[in-house]
User: Fold this.
Amino acid sequence: MGTEENAPVLLAEDIMELEKKALKVEANFEKEEAQMNRAKLNKAFVVASAEFQLDEAEKNYEKEKADYLKAKKLRNRVMNRLVALENVAHKKKSGKQKANRKNIAAKDVTNDLRAGNSVVVLADIHYPDKVPLKRGSLGVVSRINPKTGSVLINFQDAQILQWVRKVDLGKLQKKVIRKRKPAPGAMPQARCPELASIPTFVLNLDRRTDRLANMTALLQRKMPWNKQACRVSAPDGRALGQHMNPSLVCKEVWDGAMRNEASDRVLEKEDEITRSSLALVLGHARIWERVAQSKAPFGIVMEDDIAYLNPHIDKLLCKLANATADSHEWEYLQMQVPPWISKPDPEEKHPSLLQTMRLTYVTTGMYLITPQASMKALDAYFPICSNRTLDAERGFLRSGLEAYSVFPTAAMQRSDMLGHIANLEKDSDIGYDPAKRHAESFLQLSMMPDCQTLPHSKIDAMMQT
Assistant:
């Protein structure tokens, strides 16, 4: 009886307990829902902030890109202006020289004439009771009277010795003895004996005998005084295989070069290298080893596709060869600049004197390098653990050395001259085989000799391991 009376009370308590639990669960659910809403708001804020930062970064990139293009355009305009001013100055100088030669007779020749000078009569001179001096008569100054200004001249063609009064000296002109031009086919004489000791190294692939023949002919024609030119065998990127000695090239760089070659992308950036670009560094390093062991003030480095040399290049090289080592403000001197900075003058109608400038460009076709700089380059480049190409702006040659260039261009590679010289064949090393029609000319030409093998070449030793 007592148990039945207590049952409703227990049931009511259970219901109240369940209601409390339900309220507690509902409160927890509302709390978790609020936390979830806050998390969603935070996520939306983070996404919006990231999108805002991305938009700002894109705006800054576009702005910097526009500034870079503007600066590049301005630099090109300045360089073109320098070229124009150089040409104008050259024309003015040439005009003044011509005017000076034409107006010698109009000067006070009394101050110009010296005993032993040769003179020519420009107009007939008549004196009473004397043999007239006819136009074109040649004579040699024997004596000058400083008081009267008259000149005693021995006219050999007329076989007379006669005084010419000061008032008639305007009808005389110094005879300029011009140097005879060398006969066609004659080899020019060496103008600078110091150049005979300057070594020249030409980097050439073993399979490109056509380029070696072109370089041999170019040096014989434009630099006949160069007796130290020799060929350095260039490593072939195609034959380097899948692996490389890590003492020469770091594994990650070599693997990256292999991936770049396997990719279909067009490689435009200076830090996207291939096996061929790494082989180019190895080839130049072979030359640096030779320059470093040389006793010459600098070495001349040339790649085998040079097709143009400035007619004044020997004057610049002679000047540099005669300068002391301490007076060289450069360690690395580019002899070639891009065609949009300085166009070649294949007909050599207006050759300009070369000068050095503290600017460098993306090219290693021809340059000068000192022995000390060669040792620095060997220490800086190896092992190659950077993705930069040899002529990269941030590379060691252009940023780690005292780097200068020559203006206007002293040399030009064949690929850069396309469009500037008519009837110039395209010549790419990719899939190129020398044409059979060149075979006879190659056999007739005395090829450039190979450089002597270095007995202790670290580069060659590491490439063989």
In short: Residues 102-110, 182-190, 420-444 have pLDDT under 50 and may be disordered. The longest strand covers residues 138-144.
